[in-house]
Design a protein that fits this description.
The structure holds two protein chains of two kinds. By secondary structure, chain A is an alpha+beta fold. Chain A has a single domain, classed as Ubiquitin-like (UB roll), CATH 3.10.20. Chain A has one helix at residues 30-45; strands at residues 10-14, 21-25, 49-55, 61-69, 78-82, 85-87. In chain A, strands 2-1-5-3-4 form a five-stranded mixed beta sheet, covered by helices on one side. Chain A starts with 9 loop residues before the first strand and ends with a strand. Chain B is of the alpha+beta class. Chain B has helices at 7-21, 78-81, 85-142, 145-154, 205-218, 220-226; strands at residues 57-58, 62-64, 71-73, 82-83, 156-160, 167-171, 180-184, 189-198, 228-231. In chain B, the strands form three sheets. In chain B, strands 5-6-7-8-9 form a five-stranded antiparallel beta sheet. A two-stranded antiparallel ribbon of chain B has the order 1-4. A two-stranded antiparallel ribbon of chain B has the order 2-3. In chain B, strand 7 and strand 8 form a beta hairpin. The chains are: A alpha+beta, B alpha+beta. Chain A binds chain B through residues 13, 15-20, 49, 51, 53, 59-61, 63-64, 66-68, 80, 82-88, and chain B through 127, 130-135, 137-138, 141-142, 144, 147, 160, 162, 176-178, 195-200, 202-204, 206-207, 210-211, 214-215, 217-219, 223, 226-228. Strand 6 (85-87) of chain A pairs antiparallel with strand 8 of chain B.
């Protein structure tokens, strides 16, 4: 009997000079959550803003949904980390 | 200073002196016993008749002031300065050979430096291109179908302010400077432009455009407080 287990992966997209990097975690895995939370906290301390993006099952972002967050939410399916801004 | 390093200078100085004296290199001088004669710029064609037992070439670094009859001599160690003519020519040739070898080495080193710089440049350009592709992929994954369509066709997309419902047009003009048009009415008169982008300029352009979209949609008030206004 073949058993297929689908592991849900939440993702944090971090804007940087490489285009972006991603941090993923399984919301049922405590260790993965801890790593992602640590990275989230490091980035927000560095001045990044975090936005939870409401995404459908295939990770397509729904426009105008989602919000800015200041605490790591392990259940957030897709989080966008945006560095500091400046007026030009 | 090694006296070999003076040879080139002395040849030059000899030419200057020759011009000044009316051709020292070919002049005939009657020597007086007990006097010392300095012979500059000796070469294979030079001949000398002296009353002393030794024909010597005295090498000094010399400067000739143009337009005057004044010659300045710099002092060098006499033990290095006195050589005979054969040594002079031999060392002169050595000097030329050494110069040629050094030039070849320098050219090789220069070529190696150029090759490394070119390699580093190509790596940087490759990384930059990859970063642009990644940032564009990220932006497109956050656009709606309609926004993607206008962005691919016209290099802009329209977003709606999360609080005000004001329409903004974010343009890819090749820069993130004052690239946000504030629209009024339909089809959209531009009332003014806004400039607000990521502080880190090393982040590729499409990340700036995505950040602008997210700020307008989800953090509009703070975005407007930061953005600078520019005339349309």
């Amino acid at each position: 009997m073949n058993m297929h287990t689908t592991i849900r992966r939440n993702v944090m997209e971090v804007m940087d000079s490489s285009g972006h990097t991603t941090v993923t975690w399984d919301p049922t895995d405590a260790a993965g959550i801890a790593d992602a939370r640590r990275e989230f906290n490091r980035l927000t301390r560095a001045g990044y803003q975090a936005f939870r993006m409401e995404a459908t099952g295939d990770n397509v972002v729904v426009e105008n949904k989602g919000e800015r967050i200041t605490e790591f939410d392990p259940e957030a399916g897709r989080v966008l980390m945006v560095p500091q801004r400046v007026g030009g | 200073m090694p006296w070999g390093d003076l040879l080139g200078t002395d040849f030059h100085a000899a030419n200057e002196l020759a011009a000044w004296t009316g051709g020292l290199g070919t002049a005939t001088t009657t020597a007086t016993t007990g006097s010392t004669y300095y012979w500059l710029g000796a070469d294979n064609t030079a001949t000398a008749t002296t009353t002393s037992s030794t024909t010597q070439v005295y090498i000094r670094q010399m400067m000739v002031a143009r337009g005057t009859n004044t010659v300045w001599w710099s002092n060098i160690d006499d033990t290095e300065a006195w050589v005979d003519q054969t040594q002079y020519v031999t060392l002169s040739r050595s000097r030329v050979l050494a110069s040629q070898q050094r030039t070849a080495a320098e050219m090789a080193r220069h070529e190696e430096q150029r090759r490394i710089a070119q390699q580093q440049y190509e790596l940087r350009m490759e990384a930059h291109h990859a970063a642009m592709v990644r940032s564009k992929d990220l932006l497109l994954s956050h656009l709606t179908a309609a926004q993607r369509d206008t962005f691919e066709k016209n290099h802009w997309f329209v977003v709606e302010g999360g609080r005000s419902r004001q329409l903004y047009r974010i343009r890819n003009s090749g820069s993130y400077s004052a690239n946000i048009d504030v629209l009024e009415g339909l089809p959209g008169k531009v009332t003014h432009r806004l400039c607000c982008h990521l502080r880190d300029g090393s982040i590729p352009l499409f990340d700036h455009l995505l950040a602008q979209k997210v700020w307008i949609e989800r953090d509009e008030d703070q975005f407007l407080r930061t953005a600078n206004r520019h005339a349309a």
